[in-house]
Amino acid sequence: MAQTNTGLKHLSNALATPDQLSNSSSSIDGVPTDLETSIRCAGAQLTQAAGVLLHLSQDIIAQAIVIFTRFWLGVDGGSLRIYSAKDVSAASLYLTAKLSFQPTSPRSILNVYNLLLSQDVSPLSFVNPRGAPKQPPAADTYVLSEGGYQAGRLVLLRVESVILRTLGFDTHVALPHTIALTYLQTLGVSRPAVSRRVLEHLNAALLSPQLLYVTHQPNALAVAAIYLATREEGVKLVDGEWWEVFDVDREELGFLVVGMRSTEGFMRKETELWKNKAIPMVIDEVDAEVERRRMMDEGE
Amino acid sequence: MSAAKSRWADNDPETEAIIAQRKREKEEKRRTKAEKQRQLEEASKAPAPIEPADADQGVNGEQGPPKKRRRLSNDPDASSAAGEVSTSAELKKQSSLLRFPVGEWGPCRHVDNFERLNHIEEGSYGWVSRARDITTGEIVALKKLKIENSPDGFPVTGLREIQTLLEARHQNVVYLREVVMGNKMDDVFLVMDFLEHDLKTLLDDMREPFLPSEIKTLLLQVVGGLEFLHSQWIMHRDLKTSNLLMNNRGEIKIADFGMARYYGDPPPKLTQLVVTLWYRAPELLLGADKYGTEIDMWSIGCIFGELLTKEPLLQGKNEVDQVSKIFALTGPPNQQIWPGFRSLPNAKSLRLPQTSASPAGNPPLLPRSRFPYLTNAGLNLLSTLLALNPASRPTAQQCLAHPYFREDPRPKPKEMFPTFPSKAGMEKRRRHHTPEAPKRGQDAPELDFAGVFGGAAGGDTGEAGAGFSLRLG
User: Fold this and answer.
1) Do A121 and A199 belong to one domain?
2) Is position A187 within any domain?
3) Taking CB atoms and an 8 Å cutoff, what residues of chain A touch B185?
4) Catalytic annotation present for B238
5) For residue B274, what pLDDT is reported?
6) Which terminus of chain B is more exposed, N or C, with fewer CB under 10 A?
7) Which BP terms in the Gene Ontology apply to this protein (chain A) (predicted)?
8) B129 in helix, strand or coil?
9) Which of B75, B238, B296, B321 is catalytic?
10) Domain assignment present for A296
11) Rounded CA gap, A184 and A178, in Å?
């Protein structure tokens, strides 16, 4: 039995336990759940943006986001009041790239994060609510000083160790993207628009507040994305319960379809909620936000 | 039927029905609870509103974002809406779906959970000791990773070792149980199954080499493990007898993944500073930066030869000497048997003797005199494994299917293997005389192979290749 399972390791993932999903280190430290969700989602977006700027391929970025997501779960996970989301994002990306065919240097990582976290020039709305400047910004607004680099490098490498310890050195992340393309071929769907839409759904699901990537196996994510994409593009698939061929039952598919579809609404709500404010990405800002909310509650 | 019943059982059919009914209700209740419908627990018949009974409904109906949860039971709607037929059909279908092995993750334990017993050896990437798990009493091997203020954070070799070992679950690959931490940030230990022997120490202590039937059993296991690794896109890159562990039940396991890594198609650029010198393939020695699983097959050939003669096959003193030892055994390369070898970086300085009569066959058979007791099939296998041209070497899969393993004497059953006193279990192992795997981060040496066939440039060349006409320039 164990023998038949061994070959499946690279198609499957470790999943979060119910305990890890219902408790988190941050909530024990007094971070409200909705704030934690906002920060986690912003951290995932930050990782994605940094990966794009570093010219890393999407599979490395997606794996980094999954590692980032896993890190915060459970009482043994990291707390937002002990570790800055931006540091964990950077270290996840650095670690994942190191193990891939496209390693990147601490300096490149720190340069990119310095730009993305600059409140004057960052293109990310949750860092810089005014949006990216129209004119190319002056270099001194985002260039990292040598001292800043040395300090940042120490933090990056320390947080990398912390992530490894927290995850028990299990850095394996299987992704649904290639699986989905194989399934599409199996189903005889060759329209590029469908494939593109499938990948869009899978990448959007990385930001899902339901943490789909740490609660479902990649084959199920792939099937749900195909289900949605073919419907949206009006492509007819075979009759019958084709998802069972890919070992997904209807209930799981239904849940994932709803989850993936709700991601867009969630993101809109988040944008609205943090319209003129920055989402706290470092410990001090989280502390201040928690304190601010406590004062508001007491004031009422 | 009634005789089989316990006499305490209530025979009244009505009571039975009630009991069954209660049971069903209880079951239903438990399920609903699991569905996180705590507030609806009393009204146990109510359907769960969040979960769409039909996937179509989920797409078209506007649903609020569902709460995260794991699937714990069947959809309660199914039984009430579609009746019992669909439920039973669903159950039948469900059993046919593949369920992936679900792993979990958790933080590392502390090394204090283990009591260190004795030191075993120092490899190129860490110190290994025998230890006892304090809670379970099991004997394990504890390997400390070397992390010396690496400038790039946690060393990638250590990460790869852990990653590949965690993925390579096979009966012929050493089992990594967990990773534990010490007090300092960079104290990292791998906890692995303990095996009594390594093949190198065993061979050193044996008076006679293994029997042919035993060699086949050993080789089949090693190549079987390697075939699995290659099928998982893992290259070992440091196969040698001291990295093959053996227990007293005749089982052999591949260990020390300090050099292992994933490869891809197309292959990524790789360092040629891999594999301990004596087991290093000629394309690596000639500086190829594109190589593949064939380098592991070369090492298998070296191990095969070592099992036959009890001595390492190609004991070069340095890279240049290694190349000359290889060519002395296999004959020098030429364009027929290894097209394109000239374009390898270090082949430029290589001066080859002009041989008119090259040995027949492609790849040519190794000299029979070196392996007097080997059958023809065995010599054929060894010659292909030690083919200079990587493309001529068999894959692990092809190797397993070789006639050598099917001819008499057949592989000896593992259970029939002799047992040996364990050095690792009792006392400190003596240091091997095998050179170590190359250190990572060194620059690949620019090698001058002008002296391979006896020229002065290569320095200490040891014994010169026999029987070649030298062309000194």
Assistant:
1) no
2) yes
3) 158, 161
4) yes
5) 85
6) N
7) regulation of transcription by RNA polymerase II
8) strand
9) B238
10) no
11) 10
Residues A61 and A139 in one domain: yes
Task: Report which listed range, B5-9, B21-25, B397-401, B459-463, is most confident.
Answer: B397-401
Inter-residue contact A127 to A119 (CB < 8 Å): yes
Out of A21-25, A90-94, B122-126, B270-274, which region has the weakest mean confidence (pLDDT)? Answer: B122-126
Provide the token pair at B432.
């091997």
* Every domain of chain B and the residues it spans: 117-193, 197-352+364-416
**Alpha-carbon span B319 to B347, nearest angstrom:** 13
Looking at the structure, tell me whether residues A85 and A192 fall in a common domain. Answer: no
In a shared domain, residues A247 and A212: yes
Assess whether A145 and A266 both reside in one domain: no
Q: What pLDDT sits at residue B28?
A: 62
Q: Residue A132 has which token pair?
A: 């990216």
As its CATH architecture, domain B117-193 has 2-Layer Sandwich (3.30)
Q: What is the CATH number of the domain that holds A191?
A: 1.10.472.10
Q: Which residues of B touch A219 (CB under 8 A)?
A: 100
Q: Which of B52, B163, B264 sits opposite A258 (nearest CB)?
A: B52
Expressed as residue numbers, the domain containing A60 is 20-173
A104, A56 in Cβ contact below 8 A? yes
Cα-based angle A254, A67, A99 (whole degrees, multiple of 5) = 125
Residue B79 is predicted with a pLDDT of 39
Neighbour tally for B33: CB within 10 Å: 15
Separation of alpha carbons A212 and A261, rounded Å: 12
Q: Are residues A254 and A120 in the same domain?
A: no
Phi-psi region of A132 (alpha: psi -120 to 50; beta: other; left: phi over 0): beta
Do B117-193 and B197-352+364-416 come out as alike in CATH topology? no
| Predicted confidence (pLDDT) at residue B254 exceeds the cutoff of 50 | yes
* Domain B197-352+364-416 classification at class level: mainly alpha
- Residue of chain A minimizing CA distance to B160: A99
Query: B400: helix, coil or strand?
Result: helix
Q: What total of structural domains would you count in chain A? A: 2
Q: With bands split at pLDDT 50, 70 and 90, how would you rate the model's confidence at B197?
A: confident
User: What is the mean pLDDT of the segment spanning B286-298?
Assistant: 91
Half-sphere exposure of A241 (CA within 13 A, CB side): 16
Does A252 lie in the same domain as A119?
Answer: no
Q: Which residues of B fall within a CB distance of 8 Å from A249?
A: 90, 93-94, 97
Mean pLDDT (chain A) is 91
Give me the mean pLDDT over the B222-236 stretch.
95
**pLDDT band for position B35 (50/70/90)?**
low
Host H or E run for residue B471: none
Contact B445, B319 (CB under 8 A): yes
Are residues A147 and A180 located together in one domain of the fold? no
Shortest distance between the Cα of A219 and any Cα of chain B, in A, equals 10
Measured between CA atoms, the residue of chain A closest to residue B63 is: A258
CB A207 within 8 A of CB A42: no
Give B180 or B71, the one with higher predicted confidence.
B180
Q: What is the ipTM of this complex?
A: 0.88
Q: At what angle do helices B212-231 and B294-309 cross, to 10 degrees?
A: 170
- For residue A6, being part of any structural domain is answered with no
Asked whether residue A11 carries a pLDDT value surpassing 80, the answer given is: yes
3-state helix, strand, coil in chain B (%, to 5): 35, 10, 50
Domain membership flag for residue A112: yes
- For the cut 70, the answer to whether the pLDDT of residue B85 exceeds it is no
pLDDT exceeds 70 at position B54? no
User: Is residue B139 packed enough to be buried (19+ CB in 10 Å), middle (13-18) or exposed (0-12)?
Assistant: middle
pLDDT averaged over chain B? 77
